[in-house]
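Example record

One chain of 152 residues, shown exactly as stored in the release files.
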Amino acid sequence: MIQDIIIAILWSISPFGEAKVGIPYGMFRGLNIYLVFVVCFVSNVLVFPLMMFFLEKVNNYFLKWKTYKKSAIYVARKAKVGSGDKIQKYGFWGLLFFVMIPLPGTGVYAGSIATYLFKIRKREAFVANTIGIFFSSVIVWVTTLLTMKGIG
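Predicted structure tokens for this chain:
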């Protein structure tokens, strides 16, 4: 049980899944469905401050290396093309809805990068990301629950 909780947490903080993977993993492993929701949601929320620290402090150091800089520019361009117009146009609400969509490439990692690139106020962005993660987690949680019960 503890191992499954840890794995659900790791999925929830991973850029390869976030809570969109952590929640179904925990639920399908037979963990308490409410515990899974809370643990995965909170774990996913904690990514935002970590990402902001990385982008503001560590990123500048790594930009000295050509390979990293090339990759960072590629990610920035993809972020601007994929969501930039909507987030810039709608600000808080654009960021919230972007993070809320439970699809690959959306979520707190992309929301953090958008916050950094578009210079959105961190407190406002944190609230938008948290609300977006909450609704995304609810969508995934309900969908997983209905799937497990054979409805859907």
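Notes: The mean pLDDT is 90.
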